[in-house]
Every structure is written in C-alpha cells, then in structure tokens.
Design a protein that fits this description.
This protein is α+β, with helices and mostly antiparallel strands and 159 residues long. Helices cover 21% and strands 38% of the residues. It has 2 domains: 1-109, no CATH class; 113-159. The chain has 3 helices and 7 strands; from the N terminus they run H-H-E-H-E-E-E-E-E-E. Strand 5 and strand 6 form a beta hairpin. It is globular, with a radius of gyration of 18 Å. It starts with 5 loop residues before the first helix and ends with a strand. The model is unreliable at 110-131 (pLDDT under 50).
Length: 159
C-alpha cells in the first residue's frame, strides 16, 4: 500500500474492525505520520486468536463486547505485491464494551534504533511471566527492557 494512501486505508479497515469515529480518529492520529513517512507499507492486522495467544487479558468484570486491534506494519521503499487480507468484522457492541488498539512497527529495527536485532517476547523466568523488549546496537551494547509479573519496569544495559 502506498504511504500516501494510508488514511483512506485505515478508515476502511478500522470500520470493519469495529472502531467508532473517535477511536478511529485516535488510532489514525497516532499511526498516520509513521505510515505516511514511507513510500509503501506492508500492513497486517492480527487476528483475535493471535492477539489472545500473545497478549491474553484477564478481567475482574467480563465485558459484554471485546474489540482488540493490533496492526503490524513495515515501511517499504518499493512496492511489494501481496494478497489483501480478509478481515473478520467486529462483533456488534452491546453493554459494557472494552476496546484495545495498538501496533508494531517492524521498520523500527533497521531505522530508528539502528539495530541488528529487535524483538519482543514473553517467557517464564523462575515460574513468573516476564515481558522482554531487547535492542542490540551495532557497537555491541545490548539494551533489555523488561516488565516483571507486577509490571515493574527494569532496564539492563550490557556489553
């Protein structure tokens, strides 16, 4: 998709995925400058199953309607032919509704962070779940940001 066509693309896709006017506006205001900064973008919206597998939620009060959107994209210099993703329409909103939206910019690994390797994962450490975000800089310094089970932030810098 051409970077300059990003607003129209997002309007259409976010409607299918169930965002209302205000939610679409907030999503587009946040992501549009990043998308328009590239000649082209490869965009994929994670499925409910993929989101739940990677980032499960627990509620003290279960919502009547849950809408979760995760956009994964990579900025490209040149056009790349891909089959258009078929999106599953969001459920109709009823009662207590929770909406979560976010995204991952895969372009970051080569540009903004100037890294050889970039990654995000979660794993168990001594029986406790931790979320890791690691950056490997060209000069050999490894920066690891992780959140423990209490979502306390830890930053580790090593050579």
């Amino acid at each position: 998709m051409r970077g300059s066509d990003s607003a129209k693309f997002l309007e259409e896709k976010l409607e299918i995925l169930g965002l209302n006017y205000k939610e679409k506006e907030e999503f587009i205001v946040y992501w549009l400058p990043k998308l328009e900064s590239h000649n082209y973008n490869y965009i994929y919206f994670a499925t409910e199953e993929e989101i739940e597998k990677e980032m499960p939620l627990e509620f003290s009060v279960k919502p009547d309607t849950l809408i979760r959107i995760r956009m994964i994209f990579e900025g490209l210099d040149d056009f790349k032919e891909v089959k258009e993703q078929t999106l599953t329409p969001a459920p109709e909103r009823n009662g207590f509704t929770v909406v979560e939206w976010g995204g991952t910019d895969l372009t970051v690994r080569d540009n903004w962070y100037n890294t050889k390797c970039w990654g995000f994962n979660s794993r168990s450490y001594r029986g406790k779940l931790r979320f890791f975000l690691c950056f490997y800089r060209k000069n050999g310094i490894k920066i690891t940001l992780y959140f423990d089970e209490g979502f306390n932030r830890h930053l580790r810098i090593t050579k």
